[in-house]
Amino acid sequence: MTGGVPALEGATGRLEASGAEGVGGAWLRAMEGAARDRARLERGRAYARAGWVGSGAGAGRGRVSAVRWGPGRVTAYVHGSRPRPYRAEWRLPVLSAQEWDTFLSAVAARPVAAAALLDGEIPPGVVDAARSAGVRLLPDAGELVPACSCPDQGHPCKHAAALGYETGRLLDADPWALLLVRGRGADAVREEVARRSARQASAVPAAPAGSSGVPGAPEEGRPEPAVGSDPPHGPSGEKVAALPPERQQPHSTVPAAEVFATSVRPPLPEPLPLPDVAAESVVYPDLPGAPSADALTFLATDAATRARLALAAASAAQGDGGEGDGGELGGGEGSGGEGGADPLSELSLWHDTIRLAATHPQLTGRRTLSSLFAGLARSAGRDALELARAAAAWRQGGPAGLAVLEAAWDPPAGDFDRGRSALASLGVVMTIHRNHLTHATRPVQLRYGRDGRWYPYRAGPEAAGQPDAPDWWPEGPSAADPVQALTGLREH
Asked: Which of 161, 189, 162, 163 is nearest to 175 (CA)?
């Protein structure tokens, strides 16, 4: 498993480490033992406790959010003093294949513990089984390594400490997560324990020849083999007693030919409803020679957003009550995905870069010039300011809004002239240049698009009073009516 899974709310089992201390307490003891600065631990504890007020579904949703488990790590976003959260992480070595083999065999050898585990619980004997087999299941102070995207070089910083305390709380509620961090998920563990338990049960020695196979049963109670049949044999060729008919188990399987003998199939279930937002991306590992985890997360988040938009467009086209919000690609009215149009149409490298900059949750806001934004611009051979302007146009109207920014054109007589007349009747004096109407005294402009919508623009502060200056920025939503577009610009 290369990704991670979200932390689960609610208790799914209890895993006692020693005495009354749960696995969460063992984690905290190891984390505090690995810390080099008690002050940072206390600040981290305060950060974590900010989300512990109350109970139920709202608990744990404070400064520490999006906690994810994966083999060898626990990650989350921790909100500090800045608007953008930091990405904190704790790393723990996974068990080797040999250690997992030893541990699972030890659990399977304890029928009570194995049965409880297969029932979805983690009994107290699991840690004892691991310890007696020489496998370290609970973390040790020397194994835990913190990391964070903040500039603090503390070990751990307060953000990683907050994640550590939140992890301890979540491990007490969902101890299966510890096994995932150690390298294997719940389904894989249960499946392997079931396989080993069945193998051990089948390895019970067969009854000696001449006995009934039931301790204490009289010899005359053993049924004789049928006439002409060979006596049953065990795996090693020794004779074994045949079970009486009342103790023989019927076959529980059904031949595949019977299952598929009819062409009648049950109807497919109804499709799941369209999610309100795209799912959060999983946490990706940092591997030598591979793309960075942050870059993979960035692209996966975009892919989830685009997949949701494609589903919305398909639902709208089928008329099954879908939201049909393919226009979210543009982020504003009249964007390029309206009317069930395919929001995943082919785009050039530059236009897809613009789309990413305009729609990605991590890249929003006018003139965003973060390092991530600047790197995205460089990947397309452009500068960050140029990308920011184009992204603003995309948010206005998707591809149609971008076309308005990139090229002027000469609209035919009709709607364009009627729009200008409507503005003049309200006393708004505008000069004309092709499809541009520029206010005579204010740094505002309306541009008429080929889609019949009006796109408002505003000149940057350095260009105020200079209508011919090229520094025009898309601002405010587009509208089919020029008066509405101009009003929206003023409100914006």
From this structure: 189
- Check pLDDT > 60 for residue 10: no
Give the pLDDT band (50/70/90) at residue 360: confident
**Contact (Cβ atoms closer than 8 angstroms) between residue 436 and residue 404:** no
Determine the straight-line distance between the first and last CA of the chain, rounded to whole angstroms: 47
CA count, 13 A, side-chain hemisphere, 286: 9
The answer to whether the Cα torsion of 473, 479, 482, 484 is positive or negative is negative
Which secondary-structure segment (H or E) carries 166? helix 158-173
Beta-sheet pairing, 444-448 with 454-459: antiparallel
What mean pLDDT do residues 31-39 have? 83
pLDDT, residue 446, reads 93
pLDDT tens digits along 210-251: 444 444 444 444 444 444 445 555 444 444 455 555 555 555
Q: Which residues partner with 100 through β-bridges?
A: none
Provide the token pair at 231: 């006596």
Report the share of the chain in percent with pLDDT over 70. 69
Rounded to whole angstroms, the Cα distance separating 387 from 378 reads 10
Supply the pTM of this predicted model.
0.44
Which amino acid is it at 475? E
| pLDDT in the model for residue 59 | 39
What average pLDDT does this structure show over 159-185?
87
Neighbouring C-beta atoms of residue 63, cutoff 10 Å: 22
Q: What is the DSSP string of 23-88?
A: HHHHHHHHHHHH-S-HHHHHHHHHHHHTT-SS-GGGTT-SSEEEEEEETTEEEEEE--SSSSPEEE
Is the model's pLDDT at 204 over the cut of 50? yes
CA 341 – CA 316 distance, rounded (Å): 9
CA-nearest of 81, 144, 91 to 293 is 91
Neighbour count for residue 185 (Cβ, 10 Å): 17
Report angle CA 46, 363, 149 to the nearest 5 degrees.
40
| Residue 428 and residue 362 in contact, taking contact as beta carbons nearer than 8 Å | no
Give the phi and the psi of residue 18 in degrees, each rounded to 5. -160, 125
- Where do the H-state alpha helices sit in 254-348? 256-259, 293-318
| Alpha-carbon gap, residue 412 to 150, rounded angstroms | 56
Segment 259-294, tens digit of pLDDT: 666 666 677 788 778 777 776 666 677 777 777 777
